[in-house]
Amino acid sequence: MVQEIFNHRSIRKYKPDQVNPEIIDKILEAASRAPTTGNMQVYSIVVTTDAQIKEQLSPCHFNQAMVKQAPVLLTFCADFNRFKQWCRIRNANHKAYNNFLSFVTAAIDALLAAQNACLEAESNGLGTCYLGTTTYTASRIIEILKLPRGVVPVTTLVIGYADENPSLTDRLPIRAIAHSETYNPYSDTEIEALYAEKENRDDSKKFVAENNKENLAQVFTDVRYTEKDNQHFSETLLEVLRNQGFMQ
Amino acid sequence: MVQEIFNHRSIRKYKPDQVNPEIIDKILEAASRAPTTGNMQVYSIVVTTDAQIKEQLSPCHFNQAMVKQAPVLLTFCADFNRFKQWCRIRNANHKAYNNFLSFVTAAIDALLAAQNACLEAESNGLGTCYLGTTTYTASRIIEILKLPRGVVPVTTLVIGYADENPSLTDRLPIRAIAHSETYNPYSDTEIEALYAEKENRDDSKKFVAENNKENLAQVFTDVRYTEKDNQHFSETLLEVLRNQGFMQ
């Protein structure tokens, strides 16, 4: 049993303590051990500790305080730039990777590496939090982190020493996410049963009341992850893929 | 230090031994502890052990022997179907998630969960291998696993008891994948230095000779991951996203 997996909490409040560079190196090494497609390792990790750069990145992550507070940000990027440069030097057809599949392949590499980094950080006594905002504001992150064509940020991991001690987050029952042999469609009654515990939690009821909604699902659709925002960010992300050379 | 991370090898030969269902449950639980966007858990895992279904899936994974040989396949899917069904029942705007960003969000959830499953399987003495072919043949996998609209398979994890004991795979030096503060562009000389060890390995030289190519980069571009295949699979994957309702 991998203890870190079962102990994981997202940490959103950090102490100002710096992280020893040797621990960062260990985290990067853990990331690099993740399996990747054809062992191409088509991802990069930008390690940001500089206060000014974190300040610039802060609005990309909707000004969540932890971005400036935590000592280290790891931005995981789908990266075919390095691989294509190698191909160019070797007179190999680097144009083979200017397409959508290659973006997806590289994003998979980056994300498996990110989860290794997350667990290794936690095993070294650090707290972590993923920032889903990375794909929303990828075009601005590309400018700030000077990412060349062929590189697209897909997630960011905040790392530092925890200044809070949250409980384990609730999860749907395993039978909600696991399917036996083939996909097992849900009846409406089953869906209601699977989401009942989540809907009946005190914090869920508080969200519903605070946002003046009828139920928790509406908090998601009308407040947290709305159609308008999702459509806007879909367009900007597709534009990023075109600009970074993945839609040719 | 998470031992499993540093011990990981992809296993491609499996013993016929079945995996205890309690171990499968533990692996699924590990997957479900992975962080997900807004704790929406917009992914599903299809657990396939049935010989007939594995037989059907085999060509989707280019008839690699391990697909039929290993006792368990876990197909990780980006899944907004379940979440949208809940929204529909609750009179919330389920159309908010019929877009590209939602596919990417769900794929991120699925992939972080997959890496937890991989490490937990290994910690239980099992071997694993990811199949990159899942995104290439997603439309056929959707038919076989009966995935409804809103669901797209993104990776497959083969699980079983190893019948081989490979060495650790080579990796690029950490400085090849890590960037300090912002992206550090590579000079051609640096790229040659970073790929030198990989190019000089005996197995690399064997690949080059067997495929009658000038160098290792050309084995990737001309044989393993070609422009023609990548463009074809890009088109079919984008078609899958449209058919599954993620490009509206």
Topology record:
Two copies of one chain form a homodimer.
Chain A: H1 3-7, H2 21-32, E1 43-48, H3 51-57, H4 66-69, E2 72-79, H5 81-89, H6 100-123, E3 127-131, H7 138-144, E4 151-160, H8 174-177, E5 178-180, H9 188-200, H10 202-210, H11 216-224, H12 227-243
Antiparallel strand pairs in A: 1-2, 2-4, 3-4
Helix pairs in contact in A: 2-6
Based on the model shown, name its key terms:
homodimer; NADH Oxidase; 5 strands
Most extensive interface: pair and counts?
A-B, 116 and 115 residues
Uncertain stretches of chain A: none
Q: What is the subunit arrangement here?
A: homodimer
Secondary structure: number of strands of chain A: 5
Main sheet: strands, sense, barrel of chain A: 4 strands, antiparallel
The first-to-last residue Cα distance of chain A is 44 Å
CATH top level assignment of the domain at 3-167 in chain A: Alpha Beta
The level of helicity of chain A is: 40-55%
